[in-house]
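User: Some background: our group keeps a shared notebook of sequences we're curious about, and every so often someone picks one and asks for a predicted structure to add to the entry. Today it's my turn. The entry only has the sequence so far, pasted here. Could you supply the structure so I can complete it?
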Amino acid sequence: MSIAAQLSESLPPAWKNESSVLEDAWLKATQRWPSWDVPPAAYAGHVMDRVPQSCVSLRSLHLEDLFVTCACLRGSTQAIVYVHQAFQPDLDKVLAKVSHNQEIHADAKQKLHEHLFVAKDGAPPKIAGYKGNGPLAAFLKVVVSRLALELIRKQVKEVDEPMADRFADAALDPELAFLKQKYRAEFKTAFADAARQLPDRERAVLRYQVADGLSIDQIGTIYGVHRATAARWAASGREILLKSTQQLMRERLKVDPDEMASIMRLLESQLEASVLRVLQTRSRIG
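Assistant: Of course. Here's the predicted structure to add to the notebook entry:
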């Protein structure tokens, strides 16, 4: 049976007049990747399973990319290697926008392989979800950025002690430094507890700035919002953090009223500057 006949036989009646489109796409793809085992009928079935209802012509789909994903789903090691190699530069750019943390990059790439090419709990690999409406590169960028953000969100659920240390050591004012040294343990505990009480988004934004050294523009890119919105979130997080730290220290320190008033005045006047100093320094380093 000819290739055209195989393809036509695999198409629903409404699409048989598009068999030449599929034949051209299949021939071009097999010329480019002759060793990949993708029979015409398998390719046609793969495409038809993903045609959206709004599609009026198969020419509107990214048929070559669908050939690649079909080969991957058929277990072609060569096709899987091609996806990793061909799209790696684009994925590296996406990861660089999300985080400067190389461990995050490595984990995201590893999870991307498992996510895309490994069936789990009876469900097909996630690359089966690519429908050809847009470029495969765009599909992979979305997947890897989501994976990286999931990894980062796991990190920011707990505020680590080094983060509190950075703020505890940030102030240069001698009087505030003396009080912080005197009440260092209480300050670190109050700060960490206040940070854990932050809303998830504000805690994540501050962590991006302090731990990852991301700029407001980079944070805006992560959330898909204008930099002014990201800046408001960061400012809101700082305000909540500072007020909560003050409140917790007021509740926990057993000192006379005069000393407590002195501590609160110094915290109010200096702690915001200390937070900003840390964030700005980290941003320049990152």
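Suggested note for the entry: Residues 157-163, 168-172, 276-286 have pLDDT under 50 and may be disordered. Residues 257-285 form the longest helix (29 residues).
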